[in-house]
Design goal:
Layout: H1 17-31, H2 37-56, H3 67-79, H4 83-101, H5 131-138, H6 146-161, H7 165-169, E1 176-177, E2 182-186, E3 192-196, H8 199-216, H9 236-249, H10 260-271, H11 276-283, H12 288-291, H13 293-309
Antiparallel strand pairs: 1-2, 2-3
Helix pairs in contact: 1-2, 2-4, 6-8, 6-10, 10-13
Length: 313
């Protein structure tokens, strides 16, 4: 059966040529690039933002866009004082125009966004926990209770494998390869990767499966590993609440966010001597430049070590 083409802009009424081109590009991202739905939505938002700007300057075709129009558009973004937004929008539009360049119907000969640099971003280093802090948090759940044992297995798994929250809640029992001591993870864009898992973490998962999960399971639970008390898979907010709860009871005085165990996982590997390429594979980053932020975290750590132990510091 032939797959029906999705219309990302169907709620906007009759589409003009620009909207058709945007829709075609978004389909390309879905079908050819396998980007996640939320990523495609953000691309759509930025493209429609640019289209609205073009309407304000009476430009009806992407072919007509010149450097002066882009300068004005970037000036408006700058007024918003959001360099991260501007950098993302420029990146999206550069990709979009590269796509149009390869279209047989386009009159575009060059990508006008190639002449513009993205704003320099002040990359905020991710907050990470010390190994001691992680141990404190992981020791908080009461493993004598059904939900406490679940929480223990969940936190151990997130830290042992460096999982995103979305990857954690979508993890299935069949994804835990106990004999191989691996976990099959499906990340952004449903990209699959295999991540090693510690034996101690597998022990907690086994205990959770044989005790807690059996009492949580309902006929509709499917194969999801971590379930709530209703027998459904955990939500993102539920995982955030779990991390936040045990961080508070452990009296960790740091700003907590859902990815803090993931960031700590990567930083502790780097501090222990792991190479960046291996960490990239385990985190599921498509571009190693995303992983390189942890080298800055490591430098911060080294400065602290230097300050603490060097006689002249």
């Amino acid at each position: 059966m032939m797959r029906k083409k999705k219309n990302y802009l169907e709620k906007r009424g009759t589409a003009d040529e620009r909207e058709k081109q945007i829709n075609s590009f978004l389909l390309h991202l879905e079908l050819e690039k396998s980007l996640a739905e939320n990523t495609i939505k953000s691309y759509k938002f930025d493209l429609l933002k640019f289209t609205e700007f073009l309407d304000s300057v009476n430009i009806k075709s992407f072919d007509e866009v010149g450097e002066n129009h882009i300068e004005k558009f970037l000036s408006e973004l700058k007024k918003e004082n959001r360099s991260a937004t501007a950098a993302r929008v420029i990146s999206v539009l550069r990709q979009f125009y590269n796509y149009l360049l390869n279209s047989p119907k386009t009159k575009i000969k060059v990508n006008p966004f190639d002449f513009f640099d993205s704003p320099k971003l002040n990359r905020n280093l991710p907050e990470v926990l010390t190994v001691k802090d992680v141990d404190k948090i992981l020791s908080q759940p009461d493993t004598n209770t059904t939900l406490g044992l679940r929480d223990k297995a969940l936190l151990e798994t997130m830290y042992a494998c460096g999982l995103r929250v979305s990857e954690t809640i979508n993890l299935k029992c069949s994804n835990v390869l106990i004999n191989d001591e691996d976990v099959r993870v499906f990340g952004k864009g449903s990209k699959e990767r295999i991540v090693p898992i510690a034996k101690s973490t597998l022990d907690w998962i086994r205990l959770y499966l044989t005790k807690s999960r059996l009492s949580l399971t309902k006929p509709f639970s499917e194969d999801y590993l971590f379930l709530n008390w209703r027998g459904r898979k955990l939500s993102r907010m539920a995982v955030w609440d779990i991390i936040n709860k045990y961080t508070k009871t452990a009296k960790i005085g740091k700003q907590i966010h859902p990815h803090i165990l993931r960031h700590s996982f990567a930083t502790h590997l780097l501090e222990g001597g792991a190479d960046l390429r291996s960490i990239q594979e385990m985190l599921g980053h498509s571009d190693i430049s995303t992983t390189q932020i942890y080298t800055h975290v490591d430098i911060t750590y080294l400065k602290e070590v230097h300050k603490q132990f060097h006689p002249r510091a």
